[in-house]
Amino acid sequence: MPRFDAGYVPRSAMAIYAHPDDIEFTVAGTVAKWARAGCEVTFVLITSGNAGTHDRKFTRKSLARMREREERESARILGAARVVFLHHDDCELVPTLALRKELVRRIRRHRPEVVLCNDPQALFFDDRYVNHPDHLAAGKAALEAVFPCAEMELLWPGAGLPHKVHAVYVSSTAAPDTWIDVTDTVETKIAALSAHRSQLGDRDISPMILEWARDEARRAPAPKAAGKKVPARPRYAEAFRVMRLLRDEPTKDND
Ligand SMILES: [Zn+2]
Question: Beta 82-88 vs 178-181: how paired, if at all?
Fold first, then answer.
């Protein structure tokens, strides 16, 4: 059932993505909104994007160093509490059991209420973009780590105490069912993206981001309100497919 998610703020959230700048392109408005409202946000970057350039002046090592710096700056702008780099190689990511276990370890350590990740089924976007294999691999590994592995007592006891994630917010999905109003944080999203100078140079990214967020807001269903006054449709939104793994927790309040 498509819905406009007006007010839910998790106590803690973990965004698990493949590359520095993935969080910024996809979910940064939501992350900044939640962080502003007191959510403790952890970024987990599986690679440091160490192949992500056509500029021959970089080595993989120097590029990774620069992109980690950019990600830290961006996380600061978005209000994230911490950034974790797992240092896998860019463009070589596969959802192995070893990667799943690494993610379980992080989930059990930081115990997020919500995990955000990519949709591992979203292979094509319009007729212009074939999804990066690392995005698909990161999304698959994240979902497998969340369910069932992180919560299974007998599985990998050395990786920490079991933890049940309440909900997964799946981004870049062909099947969105939830839209979050990011009108108040879309400029913060643009500022965070602009920190990724190795990827964007001096390019003004704001027209593209505003257009994406405007398109998503148009797709969002009309907001509903329990009281008399119905809130206005947002100007800017981010879209998710939300999997509610703990049905009786606060995620249900917005129904
Ligand atoms: Zn990416």
Answer: unpaired
d(CA 107, CA 42): 10
Q: How far is the CA of 34 from the centre of ligand 1 (A)?
A: 22
Token pair 């160093």 is at which residue?
65
Question: If you measure from the C-alpha of residue 135 to the centroid of ligand 1, how many angstroms do you get, rounded to a whole number?
Answer: 6
Mean pLDDT per 10-residue section of the chain, whose length is 255 residues: 76 98 98 98 97 89 96 98 98 98 98 98 92 98 98 97 97 94 97 94 93 94 70 89 79 45
Task: Please tell me the distance between residue 101's alpha carbon and the centre of ligand 1 in angstroms.
Answer: 22
String of DSSP letters for 227-250: SSSPPPPPSSEEEEEEEESSTTSG
Of 194, 251, 241, 190, give the one whose Cα is nearest residue 216. Answer: 241
CA of 66 to the centre of ligand 1 (A): 16
Residues with Cβ within 5 Å of ion ligand 1?
Answer: 19, 22
pTM of the predicted structure, to 2 decimals: 0.93
The closest alpha carbon to 163, from 178, 141, 148, belongs to 148
